[in-house]
Amino acid sequence: MKAPSRNRRPGFSRRAQYGLFFSYVIAVTGILAGLGLVVAAHFDPAGFGFIKGAALDTTAPVSTAARGVVRGAGNVVDGIGAYFYAGSKNAEMARELDRDREALVRARILALENERLRRMLKLVETRGGSIAVARIVGSTGVSSRRYATLDAGRAQGVQPGQPVRSPEGLVGRVVDAGAIASRVLLITDSASVVPVRLARGGAPALAAGRGDGSIEIRPLGAGGNPFNRGDIVLTSGTGGLYPPDVPVAVILRKEGDVAIAWPLANPAQLDYAMVEQPFAGLPPPPEPAKAAKP
Fold it and tell me: What global pTM score does this model have?
């Protein structure tokens, strides 16, 4: 048997030889084309310019397409970044809006509180028969009996039978007084009866509590029911307990010969109330000073 030739390279196929051959051909062709371009640029500048123009025309669409792809990818990235940025800004603006809303609510609360305290201060200054300004520390709003508790008692001069009012209107009268606290019978209690008059026209009536938070207004004069929805009733001063012209309630509706009203001073919404002397016990107003005779 004949031994294999030593010059044969195992694993080197004909396909690999063809590939190596074509690579050499391509390389030589590229070198010759480059030399041709160099020679054309040197000896025929016009022809070389034509060649460059043709190459530019050929590569321009490819460059345009590639540039469009790059721009599109950039726009997508920018859009994603803008989306997340807008989301973070919206969240920040929402938090800032919540803070501003809370500050606005606090400012409104302070404004209402200041207005209420100014009205109370003005009430104290203008009413000569005031005894004490007390905090309402409790009230019954669900039972048939309607009471409120004040943090002022006999130590502050509070006695049973004294009327209690607020800047909004009449609250009730003191029925029990301890050393540092007192209990007030509200005008909405079924045992409370207040002489009142209609602010529009002055028709006399009686305001009686119904025990459910509302008040029944009964006219005293003949001639039917003189009340209309939205009318205000005031204390008349009759009986000497409640001072006159204190707002009591607003008419809600008519029911036959009577009217149903709602108190203007709601103890559940009040913080402070003023205890006054009974109207019959108020000191007379000071006489004006007489001018000295020359």
Answer: 0.54
